[in-house]
Amino acid sequence: MMEQFRERTYRVGGQEIHAMEAGRDGRQIALMIHGWSSSWYAMSPLMGLLAQRFHCIAIDLPGYGQSPSLPGSTTIAGYVNVLADLIEHLNDGPVVLVGHSMGGMIGVTLALTHPILVERMVLLSPTISGRLSTAINLLISPITVLERFRSGSFLVQTVENGIVGLTDRLMRPVSFAARSGITASDYMRLRADARRPGQGKVRAECFQAMRENNLSGRLSKMDTPTLILWGAEDNTVPLRDAGIVADEWPEADLRILPQAGHWPHFETPDTTRRQIAAYLGLPRASTELYQPIDDDHLIHVKEVAQFLAHSDIGNDLNEAQRMRIAAQLKQCAYQKGENIVHVADNGNELYIICAGSVEVWKDPEGIDPSQHSHAHMQHVTTFRPGQIVGELAMLDQGGRSADLIAGEDGVTVLALQRDRLLALCEDDAVLGTRLLWNIATVMAVRVRFVLWQLNRAEERRLAREAGERGLVRVR
Fold this sequence. Notes:
single chain, Rossmann fold, 2 domains, 8-stranded mixed sheet
C-alpha cells in the first residue's frame, strides 16, 4: 500500500519534520503520532481508514525515522511545542489527533496545553504515568541507559549484531499478545525501526522524558472527546495506567481489546478499525480503504446529524454520536401512496422520517396479509418529520403489523438496518445503549397513548350506555 502514501517534509521554526500522508488535501487533518522507538510506519494500519474522510499526516517525531533531533535534550514539552507550531502551519482549525504509546502521552499533553488545537483524539495504549511495565524496566531500561552514551550505544549494537535477535527475544513477549495477529512483515518493520542506528540518545532521553511527564492528577482537566483502545495483554504500558484513566477521566471512552498487546492496530486490525470508524463517524471500517468519501456525502452526513438532534432517536446524543449514527443511515424517497413496507414483510429496518409523512394502514378484518388489498385497509395514524416508525418489527424481525405508505406529499426517510444497529451496539456500547433507550422511550410513549385512547373510548362507551339506560327509564 506504499503507493497510497505521499512523502513530505515540513519545516516549522527551523525544525524539519518528515511525514507520510494519505487522503485528500483540504480535508480536516488527522495528525498521527507514533510512540517510543518507532516511526510514521507505526500508524500505517489506520491511514487507509482515516483517509476516507481526513487528510492523514503521520509524522516522524524529531529524532526518529527521517526527522532530525530537536536542538538540546528531547522532552515531551519540546515535542508539544513543535507539534503546536506544525498544526498552526498546516491548518486553520483543530485537528483529530491519533497517538500510540508515547504519542498518546504527547497528544494528551498537547490537548491540555493547547486545547483549541485538538478537536478529538484516538489513543492506542497511551503512556499515562510514564512508568512502564516491570519487564520494560528490567530488560530494556539498562539497554536504553547504555545507548545514551556513544560507547554504550556501540556496545549495544555490537551485542545485537553478534547475538542476532537479542532484543527481539526480549521485546516480543513484552510488546505483543500470545495470540497476536501481527504479520511477520509488519513485525520485522517495527523491529527495524526500534533498532535504527543513531537513535540511542533520543530513545534514552524519551525514556526519561516520559517518566518526568506523569499525567496522573491532570486528566480531570481534559475536555477533549477521546476514544482510548488498550490491548488486554499490553506488557509495555501496563493496564494500571488504564485504571488512572478510569478514575480521573471518566468522560474518556475506554475500551480493552482481547488478543492484543501494545499494538492493537497491528494485532487486531479489524476490531481496532471498526471501533475507530464507529467513533469518528466513518461509514466503512474494512472496505474501500484509501478511497475518499465524496464531499457531498460528508456534507449530507453532517446535515443528517444536525437533523437527528430534533428527532425521536437523537435525544441526549452529542454531535459526535449523531455523526456516527448519520453515517449508518440510508436515505430513500417515495412518491405519494407508494408502499414503503408491506404488512407481509418481515422487519429488518426502522425509518426516521426526514421530510413528508408516513401513513400507517391496517386491515381491520384481519385478512391474510398476503391476500389483502388497499380496498380493505383503514387509516390508523400518520407520522411526521423527526418521528420513527417500524422499530418494533425491526427489533424482533417479526412480521409488520401494518402497511407503511408515503403520505400526501410523498416522503423521504432515513433507514437504519438491523445489522447496522447491532454493529453500533457492539462497537460503541454507550451510544448503542442510548440509542436503544431512545427507541424504547418512543415505543413506551406510543403504548401509553394507545392505552389512553382505549380508556377514552371505553369512557365514551360507558357514557353512551348510561345515557341509553336513562332514556329507557324516562319512557
